[in-house]
Design brief:
CATH superfamily: Aldolase class I
Mean pLDDT: 90
Strand content: 25-35%
Number of strands: 12
Number of helices: 10
Shape: globular
Low-confidence stretches: none
Distance between the termini: 12 Å
CATH topology: TIM Barrel
Length: 250
């Protein structure tokens, strides 16, 4: 059995880590590089850095963030935000990132996933999906969750897999920042539908939520932000509890 991964997520705006609720009400959570180093030392398996306003403000993710992170960390990390071309990914991987996360640009130009996976390998390409459940249907949103699209979560995830994405990072906008638990049913369906790993994001508020997301949600990785940023749950404590439930972690 593959070990389940614990992944702190650092949403970055203006070179600071921020966290909100339902993608709004952002508050400062510290320096992203310093936090990343802390999580690495505590036993995080990977890190995700997302420039949450890069697409909305029509900016590119800065490769210097990847460079700074790479010089301070010894665990894999993913960087995303405003990535829209082979050149963008080239710059980030050259700067030290292990993977890139692509979201809005893939919705606008699905062929981009094919291009990136062929050029860099699917193991480098994380397809991020922000979706909100509306009247029983999961609607994909773009531009930092601010714009709804005509795409539906499950069909879009299947298309991304077919195009060469190596992982799906699914964030439930309904659950984001609420600490009420992950979107278990949607995650279970994604896991049943797809062969590639699913990273669960949105709603982590307790150790029990991680147990549930791995046991019932069938996720391959659990991603969280505020519970780590504000020291509500320690990574060593979380992993010890998961082991006690028979869940394999590194």
């Amino acid at each position: 059995m593959l070990a389940k991964r614990i992944i702190p997520c650092l949403d970055v705006k203006d070179n600071r880590t921020v966290k909100g609720i339902n993608f709004e009400q952002l508050r400062d959570a510290g320096d992203p590089v310093e936090l990343g180093k802390l999580y690495s030392d505590q036993g995080a398996d990977e890190l995700v850095f997302l420039d949450i306003t890069a697409t909305k403000e029509k900016r590119k993710t800065l490769a210097n963030l990847a460079n700074k992170v790479a010089h301070h960390l010894n665990i894999p990390f993913t960087i995303g935000g405003g990535i829209s071309s082979v050149a963008d990914v080239d710059a980030l991987l050259d700067s030290g990132a292990d993977k890139v996360s692509v979201n809005s640009s893939a919705v606008k130009n699905p062929e981009l996933i094919n291009e990136l996976s062929l050029r860099f390998g699917s193991q480098c390409i994380v397809a991020a999906i922000d979706a909100r459940e509306v009247d029983g249907k999961w609607i994909v949103h773009v531009a930092g969750g601010s714009i709804p699209t005509e795409k539906e979560l499950f069909s879009w995830a299947r298309e991304l897999q077919e195009r060469g994405a190596g992982e799906i990072l699914f964030t439930s906008m309904n659950h984001d920042g609420t600490k009420s638990g992950f979107a278990i049913e949607a995650l279970r369906q994604l896991s049943d539908d797809l062969e590639i790993p699913i990273i669960a994001s949105g709603g982590a508020g307790s150790i029990e939520h991680f147990v549930e997301v791995f046991e019932s949600g069938k996720a391959d990785a659990g991603l969280a932000a505020s519970i780590f940023h504000f020291q509500e749950i320690g990574i060593p404590e979380l992993k010890a509890k998961l082991r006690s439930h028979g869940i394999v972690v590194r």
